[in-house]
Structure formats: structure tokens, C-alpha cells
Write a structure and sequence with these properties.
Layout lengths: L4 E6 L3 H12 L1 H8 L3 E7 L15 E3 L2 H6 L5 E4 L6 H12 L3 E4 L2 H17 L4 E2 L10 H8 L5 E7 L2 H13 L3 H11 L7 H4 L2 H15 L9 E2 L7 H10 L1 E12 L2 E12 L11 E8 L3 E8 L3 H16 L26 E11 L4 H11 L4 E6 L13 E8 L2 E2 H13 L3 E10 L4
Parallel strand pairs: 1-2, 1-4, 2-3, 4-5, 5-6, 8-10, 10-17
Antiparallel strand pairs: 7-9, 7-11, 9-10, 11-12, 13-15, 13-16, 13-17, 14-15
The structure holds L-homoserine.
L-homoserine binds next to helix 7.
């Protein structure tokens, strides 16, 4: 048997505690699978005395995670602190510089500094593993980096945030409003400490930025991601989507186009018949369109202590087994610069909801403006005059349009022109429709 692998864990929140617990509970089975004993030799966390349901009697305690990272009797540093700077960044850099393998669940850190850290790992001949950083327990990083090595990927997309999926599912299934569903998601413990990170799409963007690099062999560019959250989605949209044969999901999508790579995070209408539409509650799913294998869809728990710890343990097992792969699927020197496709060039169908004044000619004006922009309409749905008094003219009526494939630029121009006419009340709602098999 190879010598024991000594693991140092920084951050003993739900993921860290679960990971230590599993490793202690399954030490024999894990050793058999890895061909060597794997032991938690040291830990670091903010509060020492707390009962976490794990046995730390023979484990060395460090107050400073960077000191743990560089400790000579540690082979692997597991970073579960979180955040794209501060102690997480400092300790990961210290570990790599000291020649330690690093396992992290930190999507923000990788989205910001992934390429630089991958280079540091390469230069020091060690692994930097991050299965837990994207979609929690779903083995999407290994799938993309290792199992898809013979494929060219054209698109990767997914539900990458359980909180948003939970909110949208509850809004749909229970007819609850956004605020009530968000409060419930926080109570259940899925939302980030600051839930705006979830609902405004930043958490999805961090994960998407990493997937984009793995899919297209390019550098990570999180700032280039087009971002729209779910706070503007109303019950009216959810109901209209249902009637039109769609469901609304917050998707992260990275797609190769003729002009570059689109990276976008936004509420998306997906056909009810698609695999991604059937992912409910806090579950995550990732779909990959690739030339050799076709479409691959993985679904599972994207958050939570045990699910995320499962992914961390898989990375530790790879290190114990001496499995080494390039951090981002190929050596950093081979990564292409990220070339963005402008969002205005995005092509697809659109759902548009307008509050149209109920008077002759209003509708004709909207149709005319759409025609000027060469936007062809697939369907038009007008609600009955709920709430309007009989014979009353001018009260806005909800009208839902579905366009055939067009460009983002054309839709934006058309909506700006419509808004400038005296035909609608309020701001138009627009949701992109993802073309799926
Ligand atoms: N807050 C995230 C989610 C979990 O709701 O999916 C960790 O990324």
C-alpha cells in the first residue's frame, strides 16, 4: 500500500463537517477504493469549541488556514472557506506554492482567479480540483474534462442554482409569490448568505464561467457573462408559460456561435417536453451538446452538505489514486483567450408580455413595429378583460406574444419603439426561449 494521504481541511461548515464525518466513518472502504489510507490530519475553522458531530481528538487545529495550507505534514489542502479573496484565496495560493494538492468547492474563487491558480498548480506540479464548485454533487467537472475529451462541445447549459429553481418551482406548483418562495428557500438553507447572489444570477454565473472554460478550452471570463435574475418573474409569466407549453427556469448557457462564445444567465422558457424542464425544486441539471456523443444530461443535488462533500471526496480520491489531469482540461498555455459573442447578436425565440391599452389600433401598431424589425410572430394570446368594466376603453389588457427566431437587437429595438408609443402601460416583459430538442 502507498503511504497514508494526509488531508488538511479549512472551513468546517456543513460541507466541511460532512466531508470529515464521511471520511472518518468510511475510512476502510475509502482506503480500499483509493489503495491507501486517507486521513484528516488537520483542520482550521473560525470557531474551535463548536460541536460539529465529528471527532477532532487526533486532529491538529490551526487558527490560520494559510498556516494549515503550508504545514509540512499535509499532502492535500481542502478549501471550504468560500469567497473570491481573503483567507480562501490566500490559503489556496499558499498551499499550491508549498507544493500541496488543493481541493476546493469555491466557485467564486475559480471564476475570478481560476486560470492564474491553474497556472500556479501546474508550475508546482500539483492538482487543483474543484468538482464541488459546480452543481454540488453532480459530477459535471469530471464529465466535461475527462469523459468528453473526444468531443467538441457546441453548447452547455443548466440549472445551476437550487434556490432559484426551488423558487420558480414553488411559484408554479403552489401559486405562491416570489417573496414567499424566497423566504422559504432561505429557511430550508439553500440560499447563499446573501440571497441576492442566488436570485440575481451571480452564483449561476460563477459556475457557468467555469463550465465555459471546460467546454470550449478557453480562459475564464466571468465578467463577460450577460446576467439577468429571476426577481422580475411574475405569476402571470408562469401561468402564460404553462399555457404555451413552456416552463420558466433560470439557465446558465454557454454556446459557440459564428462570432464567438455566448455566456448568458437569464430566466428562460424551456419546452415542457425537454429534460431540463422536468428538474424541480432544489435539484440542478447540466446538459451538454457535443458532436460525438450527442446530448448528455446530468441531474442531481446541486447544494447541501452531503452532496457537496461527495464531490470533494471524489477529488480527494483522485489525488490518493495519483490521477492527475490538467486543471481546466488542458495546460493553461493552450487555453484560448475568451472571445465573447455580443448579446445583441443572440438569436432565438422570445416571449413578450405587454399591457396593451384596450383601444382600436393599439394592436395593429404593435404588429406594425414588429414587422418593421422583421420579427415574425408565432402566437398572440390576449386575455379576456378580467378586471375591466364593461364598455370601458383604454384599460390595459395583458397580451402575450411568442416570436419566431429573431435577434436580441431586433427585439430590444421593437420594445423600445413600442414603449415610446402610447399603446402600452408599464414596462414590457421579455423572456428568452431556448431552442431545445
Ligand atoms: N446557493 C446555491 C444554490 C448553492 O442555491 O444552488 C451553492 O452554490
Amino acid at each position: 500500500m502507498k503511504p497514508e494521504l494526509r488531508v488538511g481541511v479549512a472551513g468546517l461548515g456543513t460541507v466541511g463537517a460532512s466531508m470529515v464525518r464521511q471520511l472518518q466513518k468510511k475510512s476502510n472502504a475509502f482506503a480500499a477504493r483509493c489503495g491507501r489510507t486517507v486521513r484528516v490530519a488537520a483542520v482550521s475553522a473560525r470557531t474551535r469549541g463548536r460541536d460539529r458531530g465529528i471527532d477532532l481528538a487526533d486532529v491538529t487545529w490551526f487558527d490560520d488556514p494559510a498556516a494549515l495550507a503550508a504545514a509540512p505534514d499535509i499532502d492535500v489542502f481542502v478549501e471550504l472557506i468560500g469567497g473570491d479573496s481573503g483567507p480562501a484565496e490566500d490559503s489556496v495560493r499558499a498551499a499550491l506554492a508549498a507544493g500541496k494538492h488543493v481541493v476546493t468547492a469555491n466557485k467564486a474563487l475559480l471564476a475570478r482567479h481560476g486560470v492564474e491558480l491553474a497556472r500556479l498548480a501546474e508550475d508546482n506540479g500539483v492538482s487543483l480540483s474543484f468538482e464541488a464548485a459546480v452543481a454540488g454533487g453532480i459530477p459535471i467537472v469530471k464529465t466535461m474534462r475527462e469523459s468528453m475529451a473526444g468531443n467538441d462541445v457546441s453548447r452547455v447549459y443548466g440549472i445551476l442554482n437550487g434556490t432559484c429553481n426551488y423558487i420558480l418551482t414553488r411559484m408554479e406548483q403552489d401559486g405562491l409569490d416570489f417573496a414567499a418562495c424566497l423566504a422559504e428557500a432561505q429557511r430550508v438553507g439553500y440560499a447563499e448568505a446573501d440571497p441576492t447572489f442566488d436570485i440575481e444570477g451571480n452564483d449561476t454565473a460563477h459556475k457557468l464561467a467555469i463550465l465555459t472554460s471546460l467546454a470550449f478550452g478557453c480562459e475564464i471570463d466571468v465578467d463577460a457573462i450577460y446576467l439577468e435574475g429571476i426577481a422580475s418573474i411574475t405569476s402571470a409569466d408562469i401561468q402564460a408559460a404553462d399555457e404555451l407549453g413552456y416552463r420558466i427556469k433560470l439557465l446558465g448557457v454557454a454556446q459557440r456561435t459564428d462570432t464567438g462564445i455566448e455566456q448568458r444567465v437569464h430566466p428562460t422558457m424551456v419546452p415542457k417536453t425537454s429534460a431540463i424542464a422536468r428538474i424541480d425544486g432544489v435539484l440542478n441539471a447540466v446538459a451538454i451538446d457535443a458532436d460525438v456523443v450527442g446530448e448528455v444530461v446530468l441531474a442531481g443535488p446541486g447544494a447541501g452538505g452531503n452532496a457537496t462533500a461527495s464531490a470533494v471526496l471524489a477529488d480527494v480520491a483522485d489525488i490518493a489514486r495519483d490521477i492527475r489531469v490538467p486543471v481546466l482540461g488542458q495546460p493553461v498555455a493552450g487555453l484560448a483567450p475568451y472571445k465573447a459573442a455580443g448579446m445583441r447578436m443572440h438569436e432565438g425565440g422570445y416571449y413578450i408580455r405587454l399591457a396593451v391599452y384596450d383601444r382600436p389600433g393599439a394592436f395593429a401598431e404593435i404588429a406594425r413595429i414588429m414587422a418593421v424589425e422583421s420579427i415574425s410572430l408565432e402566437s398572440i394570446m390576449q386575455r379576456d378583460r378580467a378586471g375591466a368594466k364593461a364598455g370601458e376603453a383604454g384599460a390595459p389588457q395583458p397580451v402575450t406574444l411568442i416570436t419566431y427566431e429573431t435577434t436580441e437587437a431586433a427585439v430590444k429595438r421593437a420594445l423600445a419603439t413600442i414603449s415610446a408609443q402610447n399603446v402600452i402601460a408599464g414596462t414590457p416583459q421579455m423572456i428568452r426561449i431556448e431552442k431545445l430538442a
